[in-house]
Amino acid sequence: MKHDQHYYLPECLMVKTDVSNMANSLELRSPSLDHKFMELAARIPSSLKRQGMRGKTILKEAVQELLPQEILNKSKTGFWVPLAHWFCNELRDTLGTLLDDRSMQRGLFNSVFVRRLVEEQVSGKHDWRNRSWALMCLDLWFCEFVD
User: Fold this and answer.
1) 0.90 cut: is pTM over it?
2) Is 54 helix (H, G, I), strand (E, B) or coil?
3) pLDDT tens, position by position, 11-41
């Protein structure tokens, strides 16, 4: 918790939140980060904050009358990017540039595999989103800085 408070929150989460809010002309406040609230939370023994793998125990008990169980028991989810959707829609043509002569002539990729990867990704037959993203970014980098 100390690491989160001193590093992960200020150097990662708060920065991302601030950038995304400013980009959309929003003013955001995080009431849970109020210094008095944080000082109170720091005085609570860790054994009361978790029950096995279940976190936020005190908070969940405090609001259990206000929220449905499916919300209280919902698994934690991170921020995700809809790459699979984008590769079938907005980024379809960009991903397809991996099959261009210019990309293939570099000899960086196995052309048979890349062709299969692109075809399966855009058709939805197989989800290659992480590899597709990495290959597409590398290809775009080559286009910008090497070719």
Assistant:
1) no
2) strand
3) 998 999 999 999 999 998 888 899 999 999 8
**Does 7 lie in the same domain as 66?**
yes
Final residue belonging to a domain, choices 43, 72, 101: 72
With CA atoms as reference, report the closest residue to 118 among 144, 147, 79, 91.
91
Range of the domain at 123: 83-145
Residues 64-115: pLDDT tens digits?
Answer: 999 999 999 888 787 788 999 999 999 999 999 999 999 999 998 899 999 9
Q: How does 120-129 read in b/e, with b if 16+ C-beta sit within 10 Å?
A: ebbeeeeebb
Contact 132, 117 (CB under 8 A): yes
